[in-house]
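Q: I'm building a small set of examples for a reading group on sequence design. Run inverse folding on the following structure and report the sequence directly after it, with nothing in between.
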């Protein structure tokens, strides 16, 4: 079975996600997790997580952390109709891109800190070596 591509439209994906949550509750008799909905829709967990957070902001979904993991509940499915059609897909892409840029910036910052630490280590070892050589020279002069 081929994995369907995301619709790139928050309105459509919100309806799909809410439907997946309902079908899972009906079929299994328990609230769905993000992973359950992802399996049913063929979405990646990251993509569904973005949609879920947006729907939680809008008051469509509620996420509850329990002893068996995080479960999704539908609060007000009618609020999906407030989502503009077609425009929000770009917003999701922008959020993903912003997250990736933030990760790249963070990785660069870590690399620069590691390079700085390496430079500090080299200068510290050079200073220690210099002091050690001076000590050896002093001892060799005093022993003569």
């Amino acid at each position: 079975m081929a994995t369907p591509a995301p619709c790139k439209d928050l309105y459509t994906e919100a309806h799909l996600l809410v439907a997946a949550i309902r079908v899972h509750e009906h079929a299994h008799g328990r609230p769905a997790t993000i992973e359950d909905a992802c399996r049913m829709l063929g979405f990646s967990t990251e993509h569904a997580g973005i949609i879920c957070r947006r729907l939680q902001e809008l008051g469509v979904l509620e996420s509850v952390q329990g002893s068996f993991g995080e479960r999704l509940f539908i609060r007000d499915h009618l609020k999906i109709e407030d989502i503009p059609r077609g425009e929000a897909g770009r917003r999701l892409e922008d959020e993903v891109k912003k997250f990736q840029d933030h990760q790249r910036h963070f990785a660069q910052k870590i690399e620069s800190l590691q390079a700085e630490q390496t430079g500090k280590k080299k200068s510290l070892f050079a200073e220690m070596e210099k002091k050690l050589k001076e000590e050896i020279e002093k001892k060799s002069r005093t022993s003569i």
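The first strand starts at residue 61 and ends at 66.
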